[in-house]
Input
Amino acid sequence: MEFIRNAWYVAGWAREFDQELRRFTILDENIVMYRKADGTVAALEDRCPHRLLPLSKGKRIGDDIQCGYHGMTFDCDGKCVRIPGQSNLPASAYVEAYPVHERHDIVWIWMGDKEKADPAEIFDMPEFDDPNWAVHQGDALHLKANYLNVAENLVDPAHVSFVHPTTLGNSSSENVPVHVAAEGKAIVAWRWIRDGEPIGFFRKFGGFTENVDRWHYYHLYTPAIAVIDFGCALTRDAIAEDERNKGNRIFALHFMTPVTANHTIDRWMHIRNTALEDDTAAETMDELLRGAFQEDKDVLEAIQQEEERPQKRRPIRIAIDKGPMVYRKRISEMVERERTQDLATAPTPAFVYHD
Output
């Protein structure tokens, strides 16, 4: 499988990193990561170039790593700084170092061309720093599923009625049309369910018992970030679509890290505009979301098993697949751009372009 390499991926929550040497697998590559003395995170190829012992089985010498086999030592830029028993340090004695950036207690890693690693391109939202919103990191959900299928699930409001009938959906939304916009940076799929019974989530978190207007806006950013804007308000309040902050509004953020072709880690978190002073609210929401995301996990892992078996015929697509189809097309285009080198950005006068 070809992964998108020129992108920022979440390596982990900030709390997952300390002074210990820890192995992480991202895009089918093993990486050793640790906090340096200054508190920043280093990321190196987890394989000594001599006999291939993982450096994570070695030990730290200050901010450097000493291989546990023959003592070759590498600094946090991947350069070999010591080979016991010899004074010369060959240029080929190095390990790859990966750009890392930490923001909002999230550690991001760049797996592609280093010169393209711009921290300004890291995903952000104004609500992270807004005191009117509560930010809470959830879990790292491991799925035995391809990240493309996981991402498609996160731009698909239509599945909620059937996969999450007691948590995030109910039967009142089964035939409500889904809108899709694919012109911007994110693919967006959304729908409103007007004057309907509150779903289980908002019965427990919000105490809604009357009929409500509720919404789902699914934003999918290639290659592997999704933001689900969902919430509800009492039907009698008659809020407009651009007045969602007047209701109980929640952002569920999903940062998908492809581990291998059939293993994805979905680190999820939530941001809410309600119950800001309630210390138990985050834990209550975690419990509710864990149940819903387990339902997704069961479905996606079952799909993965079937995809790995011989297929008798081609899968079909139906009307609700517009968002996933655009996503797959964008991923294919990104793969193709990375597969080739564009040398036509400054064409010679022999070629004159008119479009």
Q: What stands out?
A: The first helix runs from residue 147 to 153. The chain has two domains: 8-119, 125-332.
